[in-house]
From TrEMBL:
It comes from the Bacteria. Transmembrane segments: none annotated. Residues 119-206 form the Formyl transferase N-terminal domain. Residues 1-25 are annotated as: Disordered. This is Formyl transferase N-terminal domain-containing protein. One of its GO terms (molecular function) is methionyl-tRNA formyltransferase activity. The lineage of its organism: Bacteria, Pseudomonadati, Pseudomonadota, Gammaproteobacteria, Enterobacterales. GO terms for cellular component: cytosol. InterPro entries: Formyl_transf_N (IPR002376), Formyl_transf_N_sf (IPR036477), Formyl_transferase-like_C_sf (IPR011034).
């Protein structure tokens, strides 16, 4: 786990041997050393710094206090540890640089890295006179890296361990000082195994402190030939979809490895089933004693709480949950998908499995960006009042195209930005909202292929801050920067909202179109009369209304739900926006402050 000061340049894939004979390396591969404690003036040998987070870091720090250690500082990597340290009047540092400065000005013996995602530089590690220890929630060297408990369950391991080790030259590579055995049962989930590791970690830390007290720490070198490293970006095949040609126990391992409980974030993906027109998350999977002769993926039975399915070995019984984690009526689900007993569920081609897995792993670096942005969910007030209706089925209509006349000198990208700028200033002026989000449909690429539309969000939040005291050029620059930021971060997996408790609590994020107002950009629009509804559905980005821009023709129009929005309201807004867009598209106005531009007021 991070806490080391270099990264592994190459990953070694998990060994095909799924048996862990014991929780340490074989005796003939270990070089056992003794770590002697250097005598220091009274108190100095017990000075330390703790870096990390979660309740485990708190528990271990409490153990250090009880053992008489001087906690010189804490470097918290999350708020829970920080708040606790503050309540205990323990000094907190906020950055590695601050910790380095502190360690240079004050002699400190020990560093304890506990559930720490921060990479520590060698210069910092070397400041601690006695050494630095890191906690890893897995047996080393077999399971170096991240999310090890899930990978061990997925690999079918029955024996496991946690490790306290010295911080070495690579991630999770230092000499082992304590290892505690943990059994994995065939019913264990990521949640239950993490809880077992939590208890073992506390017991292991007690053992480590006792060894420090005795001044004699056994050390065992790790065998690099037995090392497997699991990258933070690595994800299960096919984004966690059940692959019916797998054995029942393998599918059970997949579901259990991705079950983290409703109160904890799921950092990987949800176990899921691909149906004809949707993905559905798995709630539970039970391996049966029966083994049917039907092809894998055949639907054998349907009831209100489960389906009975075939695999390449035993049959399985699966239940489903919605995006909020609540049970789904399996009988209703089958009816919605027009599935009957004897039907075979879709399979994912081998080439598609690799493509889907690659895309999923490529997007992992952007997940934190999207988690933070979605947690700030906000929408502007609409520039009109909505109609009262109890009918939830939308009736989509389109306004007439409006043309921006002063666009001849603008390239298509600039034209889009000018229309968006006019729309945002208009919304800020009519709603008094200066910071908000609207739905945005990214330009189509491999991720946005209709083949993967169930897996990845097709609508993402464009976030903007509008200061009406800024000049138009400044606002246009901020819109351009936002577009570049969205292109860089692409999209996020649809199940990310369900995997994060903070996001799961935001109700609109469970909708297909979370934002009431959306923006879509097209090129050279021509209406297909024979497939008009499909074109409209593809273009709809906002739950209530979408500003659709044709970047080549200099046109825009609104697509809106007529059950909520009156046509005269849309026509009024469209006319105002056309006039306002022409003002902004005129280069003579670019240095004018936004609040001084002519705004055509809309009567709400």
């Amino acid at each position: 786990m991070p806490g080391e000061f270099t990264s592994l340049t190459q990953e070694k894939k998990n060994s095909t041997d799924n048996t862990l004979t014991n929780n340490t390396l074989p005796n003939n591969t270990l070089k056992v050393k003794k770590c002697k404690i250097v005598n220091h003036p009274t108190g100095e040998a017990r000075s330390c710094v703790v870096i990390g987070g979660t309740t485990l870091a708190i528990r271990c720090t409490q153990q250090l206090q009880a053992a008489g250690y001087i906690i010189v500082a804490i470097f918290p990597t999350e708020s829970l540890f920080s708040e606790w340290a503050t309540s205990q009047n323990i000094h907190c540092v906020e950055a590695r640089e601050d910790l380095l400065t502190l360690s240079k000005t004050q002699s400190i013996c020990w560093l304890f890295s506990i559930v720490n995602p921060v990479i520590l530089p060698a210069l910092l590690i070397n400041q601690f006179s006695q050494g630095a220890f890191n906690y890893h929630d897995a047996p080393l060297p077999r399971y170096a890296g991240t999310h090890a408990t899930s990978w061990a369950i997925l690999a079918g391991e029955s024996q496991y361990a946690i490790t306290w080790h010295l911080i070495g030259s690579m991630v999770d590579s230092g000499d082992i000082v304590v290892q505690r055995h943990v059994d994995i049962k065939n019913t264990d989930t990521a949640l239950s195994l993490n809880l077992k590791c939590y208890q073992a970690a506390i017991e292991g830390f007690t053992e480590l402190l006792n060894n420090l007290e005795n001044g004699d720490i056994p050390r065992r070198q790790q065998d690099p030939d037995n090392r497997s490293f699991f990258s933070r970006r690595r994800r299960p095949d096919a984004a966690g979809c059940l692959l019916w040609n797998k054995k029942a126990q393998e599918l059970s391992s997949l579901v259990r490895s991705l079950t983290f409980g409703v109160y904890y974030p799921n950092p990987l993906t949800l176990p899921k089933v691909l149906l004809r027109d949707r993905l559905v998350a798995i709630g539970t999977l039970q391996v049966m004693y029966t083994r049917s002769d039907h092809k894998p993926g055949t639907l054998l039975g349907i009831s209100e709480d489960h389906w009975l399915m075939t695999t390449s070995s035993e049959d399985i019984r699966i239940s489903f949950v919605n995006s909020r984690g609540n049970p789904i009526n399996a009988l209703i689900l089958a009816n919605q998908c027009k599935l009957e007993i004897g039907d075979q569920l879709p399979t994912i081609a081998r080439s598609d499995i690799k493509t889907l897995t690659d895309i999923h792993e490529q997007l992992t670096e952007q997940e934190l960006f999207w988690q933070k942005r979605l947690a700030r969910f906000s929408t502007p007030m609409l520039p009109f009042r909505l109609r009262a209706t109890i009918d939830k089925i939308p009736d989509w209509h389109m306004s007439e195209w409006k043309r921006v006349l002063n666009h001849s000198s603008l390239i298509s990208t600039e034209l889009v930005q000018h229309i968006i700028c006019a729309w945002f200033i208009y919304l800020a002026h009519t709603s008094n909202d200066t910071q908000f989000q609207v739905g945005w449909a990214q330009a189509e690429d491999a991720v946005h292929s209709s083949k993967w539309s169930s897996f990845f969000a097709m609508i993402i939040p464009m976030e903007i801050y509008i200061d009406l005291q800024q000049r138009l050029t400044e606002i246009l620059n901020s819109i351009s920067s936002e577009q570049q930021l969205l292109e860089k971060n692409r999209v996020y997996p649809c199940d990310m909202v369900s995997r994060q408790p903070v996001l799961r609590a935001i109700n609109p994020l469970h909708n297909n179109r979370p934002w009431p107002i959306g923006i879509s950009v097209i090129a050279d629009y021509s209406e297909d009369i024979t497939n008009k509804n499909a074109i409209q559905e593809h273009a709809i980005v906002g739950e209530i209304m979408t500003l659709q821009i044709d970047k080549n023709k200099g046109n825009f129009r609104f697509i809106y739900n007529s059950k909520l929005v009156a046509v005269n309201n849309i026509e009024h807004v469209a006319s105002d926006l056309a006039l306002f867009s022409n003002v902004i598209a005129d280069s003579k106005n670019l240095n004018i402050v936004a609040n001084e531009l002519p705004i055509y007021e809309f009567s709400r």
